């Protein structure tokens, strides 16, 4: 089916700023609360949010096989479960409805009033109910930096790393949308030089610059997904900040990997940008350094050219960009991650979320965590207001942004912005 929604020449009758992440070629999907306190599935063009539930009720999706209530839901899970053919029909239809040359909705004031919202009239929600969340560790630069710091610079990568897209099962209950603040976690740590652990606030709270992909119903128990089919089951991507408490992590992670150091919060951007919208930005992945086992061998362009950046905004100062990276640096692709995830027969469902792992680039200004940017705190990062950061301070806001740009068309993700609050205090919170 043609991706007519990606036509770079199409203009919308809705206003779109030149540098907007959301031209008519994007058409992401999200869930929002409207000014009337109604929850609905929607999309966005420029700075206008579009109520797809209302559009559907007014008959604009006629002839597309959709249930009546498919967009009148508080999650995208059922729509995503309808599969890629339906996503494409709906995106193509939305592009037609908002095409500058189509007068049907453009000329109907009453319908426009029911369907269109300013961004300050809506409140974005989590776009999917995330059944399972898995986090990978697929940037060779990040894995090498961490291995160098914590183990052995001469053998920074563990023996399995070039053979397996290493991952672990995360916790979906603490995945939150942009704008929801997070408390500094408490936990067990082992102070340097001590043999007894202590309990208290983490002193080394960090971000991890990641992206995450959202899947559709992919397979039944026992059924692996072949590598050449894997992308059919990927609905789209979001920006992903995998909050991490480095001191808790260091003490707890042996032998079974991350646990409470990661599960206190992970933040995502609220608009899911479809894999279809990203198609024009496909690029080569890094060449495999070792021959990969056959079930993981993938041909063609495996990655996407997505510019990424991280800012820190102190409570009373402007933000400072502390890292610029790119999704194309990922050594293992999303298809390889999903294939590996299911090779043992593990089912993947609609609304599952897979984190990429921290996306570090090759240069020190492209590292995707404070752990790497400040090199364990040995090289503090100076912000524009003159203050220094080794890790994240109370009341700092961490903001991640991402976009693709080619031939004058820009497709972006908006942002995921999360404030780190001081440790939870039950008395103050009442
Ligand atoms: Ca992570």
**CATH topology grouping of the largest domain:** Fumarylacetoacetate hydrolase, domain 2
Name of the CATH superfamily of the largest domain: Fumarylacetoacetase-like, C-terminal domain
Poorly predicted ranges: none
CATH class of the largest domain: Alpha Beta
Would you tell me the structural class of the helices and strands? alpha+beta
User: Strand content of the residues, in percent?
Assistant: 25-35%
State Rg. 22 Å
Tally of DSSP helical segments: 11
General form = globular
How many separate domains make up the residues?
2
Biggest β-sheet strands, sense, barrel:
8 strands, mixed
Helix share of residues?
A: 10-25%
The end-to-end span amounts to 55 Å
Ligand set? calcium ion
Q: How many beta-strand segments?
A: 26
CATH architecture of the largest domain: Alpha-Beta Complex
Walk me through this protein's architecture.
The protein has 430 residues and is an alpha+beta fold. It folds into 2 domains: 121 residues, Fumarylacetoacetase, N-terminal domain (SH3 type barrels); 289 residues, Alpha-Beta Complex (Fumarylacetoacetate hydrolase, domain 2). The protein is 17% helix and 26% strand. The strands form 7 sheets. Strands 6, 7, 8, 13, 14, 16, 17 and 22 form an 8-stranded mixed beta sheet that branches. The chain has a 5-stranded antiparallel beta sheet with strand order 4-3-2-1-5. The protein has a 5-stranded mixed beta sheet with strand order 9-26-25-20-21, with no helix packed on it. The site of calcium ion (CA) has 7 residues, from loops.
């Amino acid at each position: 089916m043609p991706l007519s929604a990606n036509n770079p020449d199409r203009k919308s009758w809705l206003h779109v700023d030149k540098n907007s992440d959301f031209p008519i070629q994007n058409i992401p999907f999200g869930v929002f609360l409207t000014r009337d306190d109604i929850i609905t599935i929607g999309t966005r063009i420029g700075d206008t949010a579009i109520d797809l539930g209302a559009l559907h009720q007014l008959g604009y999706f006629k002839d597309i096989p959709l249930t009546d209530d498919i967009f009148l839901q508080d999650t995208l899970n059922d729509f995503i479960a309808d599969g890629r053919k339906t996503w494409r029909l709906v995106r193509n239809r939305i592009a037609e409805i908002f095409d500058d040359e189509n007068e049907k909705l453009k000329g109907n004031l009453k319908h426009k009033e029911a369907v269109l919202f300013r961004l300050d009239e809506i409140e974005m929600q989590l776009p999917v109910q995330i059944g399972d969340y898995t986090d990978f560790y697929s940037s060779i630069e990040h894995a090498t930096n961490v291995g160098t710091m914590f183990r052995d610079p001469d053998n920074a990568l563990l023996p399995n790393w070039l053979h397996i897209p290493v991952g672990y099962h995360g916790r979906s209950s603490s995945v939150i949308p942009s704008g929801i603040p997070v408390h500094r976690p408490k936990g067990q740590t082992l102070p340097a030089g001590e043999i007894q652990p202590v309990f208290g606030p983490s002193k080394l709270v960090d971000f991890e610059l990641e992206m995450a992909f959202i899947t559709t119903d992919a397979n039944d128990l026992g059924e692996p997904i072949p590598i050449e089919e894997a992308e059919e089951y990927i609905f789209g991507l979001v920006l992903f900040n995998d909050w991490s408490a480095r001191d808790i992590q260091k003490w707890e992670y042996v032998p079974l990997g991350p646990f409470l150091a990661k599960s206190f919060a992970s933040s995502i951007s609220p608009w899911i940008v479809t894999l279809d919208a990203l198609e024009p930005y496909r690029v080569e992945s890094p060449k495999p350094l070792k021959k990969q086992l056959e079930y993981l061998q993938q041909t063609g362009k495996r990655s996407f050219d997505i510019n990424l950046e991280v800012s820190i905004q102190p409570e009373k100062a402007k933000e400072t960009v502390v890292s610029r990276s790119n999704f194309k640096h990922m050594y293992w692709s999303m298809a390889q991650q999903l294939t590996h995830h299911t090779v043992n027969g593990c089912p993947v469902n609609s609304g599952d979320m897979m984190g990429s792992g921290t996306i570090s680039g090759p240069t020190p200004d492209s590292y995707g965590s404070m752990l790497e940017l400040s090199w364990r705190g040995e090289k503090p990062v100076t912000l524009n207001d003159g203050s220094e950061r080794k890790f994240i301070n109370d009341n700092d806001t961490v903001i991640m942004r991402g976009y693709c740009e080619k031939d004058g068309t820009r497709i972006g993700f908006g942002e995921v912005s999360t404030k780190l609050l001081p440790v939870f205090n039950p008395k103050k919170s009442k």
